[in-house]
Amino acid sequence: MKINNIRNFAIIAHIDHGKSTLADRIMELTNTVSQRESQAQLLDDLAVEQAHGVTVKSRTVRNYYQADNGEEYEYNFIDTPGHVDFTYEVSKSLAASDGALLLVDATKGVQAQTVANFRLAKANNLVVIPVINKIDAQAAEVERAEQEILSLDAEFANGPILKISAKTGLNIHDVLEVIHTTIPAPTGSRQAPLKALVFDSQYDSFKGIIAYVRIINGQLKANEDLLLMANQQRVNANEVGIFTPQRVAAPNLVAGDVGYIITGLKDPKALRVGDTLTNYAQPTAAALPGYEPAKSVVFAGFYPKGDNFNDLQLAVEKLALNDTSFEYHQENSDALGAGFRCGFLGIFHLQIIRERLQNEYGLDVLTTAPNVTYNVHLKNQSEPIMINNPIRFPDFAAVDYVEEPLAQATITTQADLLGSVMKLADQHRGQLVDMANQGELIVLEYRIPFAEIAYDFFNQLKSVSHGYATLMTEFAEYDLADVVKIEVHVNYAKVDALSFVVHRDDVANVTQELVHKLKYVIPRKLYPMPVQAIVEGKVIARVDVPPLRKNAAVSGDKKSISKKQALLRRQSVNQRQAAQSDIELPQEVFNAILELEK
Question: Where do the coiled-coil regions begin and end (predicted)?
Fold first, then answer.
């Protein structure tokens, strides 16, 4: 295929605006998949994607399109997620694309991730084609959606805004035509030394690491010796090929192509997404700039249920390769044993990883309460220590002061929703920095602690704004914070895995709510067990978990004093012995911390 006839593009949209359905129609009209193979949301093949109705993992597929001008074009479509937690997956896909279709639901208009993903596309200097979907829906407001698209960028007025129905296939042919007439062909030389961008990866138990690549210059052949320039890792191209959407081996890949390489590498850390791949014998002069690795904003602990730590370790390593925005480090807990401290892009990302461990590897894990990273300055040290695990938070007597990470949050909302959005930001200790107009929308700049927005802030923002507000965050700096560590003791035994850090102003409400929630989720025993929330050595809140049966010693029955004293002594001995034994806690105990109103 001539390089002038290749088009690499992505579809960007808010969640549930019909992106996967449009991808299905494109594959059908280009005869990429047969009618027998065709199914709804074909590219969303993960169980969690089908269960939640969202795209989690980027996918790639090559289509061949016979255009009206008689030319045949190669369309390399790179799928993107729509949820805010997976913005990093979108950025990877856009880095390998030359253009993007901006899909907007005619019944909902421009929404949160519509604006966020549009900005990502413009930052990558991509040609953006606006498309309005679901125009045949009864609740469609096509003109309003068109005006909202024009308010995003005045340049959209210079070109057509396509109006389609991905469900019925209406005007999908116009989309296929505008792709080759508007999106530019790749630039690059097929005679130059090999230079390829590794924009994603996958782990196969038998074949090892499979790298997803976009060829910038040169050509790549099977069984060729290659070099990953970041780590100077030498690899052999055991197999190269394309996605249709299944993997299909090909003799070579040339400049402009998007495909895969089976490297045979078994070490998940040997390949880094964003790396430059080149020929080992004739390497390219300079590596591609790539892009920054994902920055985790939420951390939580994963611990195996039962004695299957090795299985969990293997599963976590494979998931980290398939999802490069997921990170992990091994840790140990006195209450739960060996496990992993994991980093996530958000709470929904955490939920997806947990479900993938269960669905793909058959592992049930205990998940501790999420938290962010703090800089803790000690009284006897000049350099601060970074704490992303509340278990390692120093004793309050040794702490001089603590700094927490602040987010530079950009919220775009409609004027009539301004009051509700600002009230929500104030409730989460947000500081207003700037306010500006963007057409009919208002852009708010806030500085908000990551600890306040990492949990459920985005869902609350969607709720108060009816889905029309956008949220984009980036790390700003560390700032002073009056935070304290809350320790939980069950039956006088400290459960370190239940520790978490909160702002001092929230301690009273949070601890009272916590102990009353734990009262109903901690497994009961034959005697009452106290649950205590301790802050800086003081018990702030306490409640007793009721026993499985009535306490014989204080049941109200008429017994002699000596019998009651004997029962109380035996009960006291049982409690002291139980306090030294292992406490088995179900996931509901940790969920109680997740559900706290902070």
Answer: none
Strand partners of residue 215: 196
Report the SS3 class of residue 100.
Answer: strand
Global pTM reads: 0.66
Q: Is 16 annotated as a binding residue?
A: yes
Maximum Cα interatomic distance, the chain, rounded to a whole number of Å: 103
The annotation status of 551 as a binding-site residue, yes or no, is: no
Residue 87 CA neighbour count, 13 Å, CB half = 24
Annotation-wise, does 377 bind a ligand? no
- Read off the DSSP letter of residue 498: G
- Give DSSP secondary structure letters for 105-160: ETTTBS-HHHHHHHHHHHHTT-EEEEEEE-TTSTT--HHHHHHHHHHH-GGGGGS-
The reply, when asked if residue 572 is annotated as ligand binding, is no
Residue 333, marked binder = no
**Residues 226, 232, 234: CA angle, nearest 5 degrees:** 35
Q: Do the annotations mark residue 21 as ligand-binding?
A: yes
Question: What are the structural domains, with CATH classification, of the chain?
Answer: 3-182 (3.40.50.300), 195-279 (2.40.30.10), 298-367 (3.30.70.870), 374-481 (3.30.70.240), 484-594 (3.30.70.2570)
Any known ligand binding at 19? yes
For the chain (598 residues), the mean pLDDT of every run of 10, in chain order, is 90 81 87 62 48 56 91 87 58 83 88 75 89 91 89 83 91 92 90 88 82 90 88 88 88 91 82 84 82 69 82 85 78 78 78 83 80 87 86 89 89 86 91 83 88 76 76 83 91 84 90 90 83 93 82 57 73 58 66 62
Q: Is 20 annotated as a binding residue?
A: yes
